Amino acid sequence: MTYHANARTTMHQRKRIRRSRDPYRVQARTLGVSVATVAKWTRRADPADRSSRPHRLHKAVPPEAIPLLTWLRKDWLVDLDTVWLALRQTVFPQLSRSAVYRELVRLQLHRLRTLRPQPSRPRGRFRACPPGFLHLDAFALPRLDGHRRYLFVAIDRATRLVTMQVHPARDTASALAFLLHCQRFYPFRLYRVLTDNGREFTLRLYRGRGGVRTTKVHPFTQACRRARMRHSLTKAYHPWTNGLVERTGGTIKAETVYRWHFDSVGLLMAALYGFERYFNEHRPYKALGGKTPAQLTQDWYAKCPNRFLRQPVGSFTTW
Fold first, then answer.
1. How much is the pTM?
2. Domain membership flag for residue 315
3. What are the pLDDT digits (tens) for 24-37?
4. Which domain holds residue 46?
5. Domain for residue 56, yes or no?
6. Could you report the per-residue pLDDT of 232-250, keeping only the tens digit for each?
7. Fewer CB under 10 Å: which end of the chain, C or N?
């Protein structure tokens, strides 16, 4: 049973009070409550807590105004101020704007965005390409030992081969270190990298003094050029452009940090890198014929060996 937040007696004590024939003062002294409390539960037939809700609710919006309010909001999709002025200038001059807004919240009509018909955006598919097209992103990890850490994730578009690294900061130095790790991890030549517009990857959205955009080239882009890789950026506020690594990051977090509690950084990293090995060697991709990323890598090596820098053998994991 759920008791009231300030309840001083339990259900068993209330039934005992009702059955007892002792004076009120004796029962109050025994249970540690007031005489009024004992008298209340003696007279009350039901020992359960009553609702603290008022018997009659006072509403600022009259009941006869609700159909008109709903019609204006749902059928005409007008904003809050228009609804308020329409009701105030016609038959309800005493209405306040805050009262109309509270009624819209109660009716779940306070967000026009959810009321307007949303155009169905066609679901696109990534263009097929040979191995070497990487999707990169960084995700925040839970705080451990009072410090925030970040997980850098990369996935190849053709083979779905994943690699990841944990870094203490989401900055340029971490991004450069992870790019170097990707070059050592993947057995094929990398020719293109797709990232978002984070400060660790680009300066495209950075504005200097006076609101002028900078013309400097980000160190991450410079490192890509030195390695003969093309650095591409997603369109601002369009995260689905890099949806492959976004979805992969969500899967990694759902299977590790959202599922288990970690007492140390070592346990967290062991779980992340263990899931990386499972993802690459044991997790099949239904959209790619039910094969694992390791099997897809072997198939690409048999089909296009000239794209590979070495034979893809061994364990596909960072450890």
1. 0.62
2. no
3. 999 999 888 999 99
4. 1-50
5. no
6. 999 888 888 888 899 999 9
7. N
